[in-house]
């Protein structure tokens, strides 16, 4: 396993030896292309990618997948449930960092078989600040269209066809593919404006909220009809003049309503201008969707009257931020977002109280049908639930949770009717009770039928007592709860200057544990493989988080494309681990592990070791201390290690005859022994 060690060496190696590396992949001697930097992979010409995939998978299967009218079966198609998600190694991709959906396939050439799942961050048109999580419509984001692909294969002339072909090819490559499920939109999205009844509204005058009553959406509906009366529809077709009929999807379909309000789907500029006109009309009357909130108490808003909380937009409109009236530690208002209104309110919403006994059935079904449509059309295998930690009921969560307990639960259940194997990966952080959600977050995850959850290991420095103790807690939850916490390496929204300290050291440990803890799922964001250590903040273009939105001004602005790291040493070390995974994963995949040295709940003992419970073939050892060598007799007392053959160390000479000192581990050292 000889790999280059510098960034330039890798670039040169690919230039000089790419045919050899490709031939090993094409011949199925490796499940990924070694020595190929992700940065180089996404620059690969489409014809070269087509050649590689055609040679590996055969002409028939490749061209069958390249037809968007066809559907390539999911690798988990025959699973009766979603338990597969509980041990999968997933990679999250912010498509904006690599420009197009097509480049996801190119990037996937760098992933070994053991990293068998792809999570696509939100794929829809964006609203304010172009945030991926503030969708402006249900249309697939046209920015992710690949012009070169369309020139190479002219039948792939829409972004929708390209996305379908990408999921086909990822399935052909053995990867499952997932989408985000988002229970909110951009505050003034086409979705909100075409369906005011599915959202909560307020009316503001300067610094005062003058109305936030239960049925304020009816006044908004009348205002939208007034707008049509004043400015006309985009077509001279008949439309219902009564709000009860105009906004009834059974009488006047949402498709027709969107077309009438905003224009043809393929005219993005025209739709945006028309939407902006309608926003100005509503804004002049003080009507705004209630912004989404996070963390208890969730409810109760007032206008933030500070000068710095005022925004003047390019159309001269003055916007005000909102704050929680009685905030707690994690309370936050997301000004650009509007959450779907899932329940009726108490007492005409006078005190901002929700009546959780009265779900708004039509809103639940609307959201479920939308996401079921995407899961079916693009053949997704799982959903990542955005803001799954939201649990707004201040009462103790009931032991018998109805289908209307959680919107992600409801959506997943709807999709599972067609896809029994469809999984639910929850975005929650396993925070203490009543911190990010009311009640116990673990109970909430079980109540919402989550298969896995993100957790928060990515927000801790490897080897600290907090990291070790939390990892011990996560693995305990894995064996005692219905959901599985992830061993999360890095996420796209933690690759941010604020979190540089997490990735200064210990990154090989993160990948080692992610790949070889076979009874635990893992999650890694694109960019981790080459990420430079940043003792001091780098320019914004070096962070994937800052491409979740698009800002041209301010401290979060980016100018130009995402810049990959040049950490050749890290990429070399991780390439070795991926190659080892290729060689041994078929012997250990999905096996329950047997702890030889358990993670210490107090976080003080930094040595962990495990093997496989049923068919032990390899022993893994990790020194989680990234600052100190450790002398220990614990390993010497494990009989199976004394009888095993030294296989690999991240620190020491790795030839087969190497003599590892069992009682001495270097700082951050990871070892493998073969039984």
Query: What's the Cα radius of gyration?
Result: 26 Å
CATH architecture of the largest domain: Alpha-Beta Barrel
General shape: globular
Count of distinct strands: 30
Mean pLDDT figure: 95
Strand content: 15-25%
* Helix/strand class: alpha/beta
**Count of separate structural domains:** 3
Look up the CATH topology of the largest domain. TIM Barrel
Query: First CA to last CA: what distance?
Result: 21 Å
Largest sheet: 9 strands, parallel
The CATH class designation of the largest domain is: Alpha Beta
User: What is the CATH superfamily of the largest domain?
Assistant: Glycosidases
Report low-confidence residues grouped into runs of 5 or more: none
Strands of the largest sheet, in order across it?
Answer: 21-20-19-18-5-2-1-23-22
Number of helices: 20
| Fraction of residues in helix | 25-40%
Q: Looking at the chains present, what oligomeric state does this protein adopt? A: single chain
Give keywords.
675 residues, alpha/beta, TIM Barrel, Immunoglobulin-like, 3 domains, 9-stranded parallel beta sheet, 5-stranded antiparallel beta sheet, 20 helices, 30 strands
Topology:
Elements: H1 7-26, H2 38-41, H3 46-57, H4 59-65, E1 89-93, H5 95-98, H6 102-108, E2 117-120, E3 124-126, E4 135-140, H7 147-152, H8 159-172, E5 176-181, E6 184-186, H9 190-194, E7 201-205, E8 208-211, H10 216-231, H11 243-246, H12 254-262, H13 268-284, E9 287-289, E10 291-294, E11 301-303, E12 310-312, E13 318-320, E14 322-324, E15 332-339, E16 343-345, E17 354-359, H14 361-377, E18 382-385, H15 407-416, E19 423-426, H16 441-447, E20 452-453, H17 465-480, E21 484-485, E22 487-490, H18 507-516, E23 522-525, H19 568-588, E24 593-597, E25 607-612, E26 618-623, E27 630-631, H20 639-643, E28 645-649, E29 664-665, E30 670-674
Parallel strand pairs: 1-2, 1-23, 2-5, 5-18, 18-19, 19-20, 20-21, 22-23
Antiparallel strand pairs: 3-4, 6-15, 7-8, 7-9, 10-15, 11-14, 12-13, 16-17, 24-25, 25-26, 26-30, 27-29, 28-30
Helix pairs in contact: 3-4, 6-8, 14-15, 18-19
